Amino acid sequence: MGVMGNGRLAKRPLWLFLVSFLAIIGLVLLTSPLQNVAWAICFFGLLAVAALSLGWLVLGLKKKVSPRARSSVVIISLALVLGLMFKSASAFSWLDIGVLVLICIGLLFYARRR
């Protein structure tokens, strides 16, 4: 049975996404990451949780979810968050983007072959 086998497990990613998304909105409205770097760390942590739960929610639309699909969601979500972290730090050149994309493609290829 997949991750989303019964109704209770299907609701978990939805609630996790909604709570983390609302926490991101509250964090953005009430804090300033320029004054304290800890808020930026909290933001990217919440963003990773939101991306993972959204990926699992989209996977939940399928009847059967394979472990390969779940590992692909983790790899893609973390790559997006890492890309946004580098972009927000203005530390992204074309070479860095290429390296990140190649690493993600390699991890996805490895996850599919396992």
What does this entry look like structurally?
The chain has 114 residues and is an all-alpha fold. It has one domain (7-113). 78% of the residues lie in helices and 0% in strands. It has helices spanning 7-30, 37-59, 67-88, 94-113. The longest helix has 24 residues, at 7-30. The two termini are 20 Å apart.
What does the secondary structure layout of this molecule look like, with pairings?
Layout: H1 7-30, H2 37-59, H3 67-88, H4 94-113
Short recap of the structure:
With 114 residues, this protein is mainly α. The chain contains four helices and no strands.
What keywords describe this structure?
single chain; 114 residues; mainly alpha; 4 helices; 78% helix; flat
Q: Unreliable segments (pLDDT under 50, ≥5 consecutive)?
A: none
Radius of gyration: 16 Å
Put simply, the count of helices is 4
The helicity comes to over 70%
The amount of beta strand, in percent, is: under 5%
β-strand number:
0
Q: How many domains?
A: 1
The H-and-E topology, N to C, reads as HHHH
Distance between the termini: 20 Å
Specify the overall morphology: flat
Overall SS class: mainly alpha
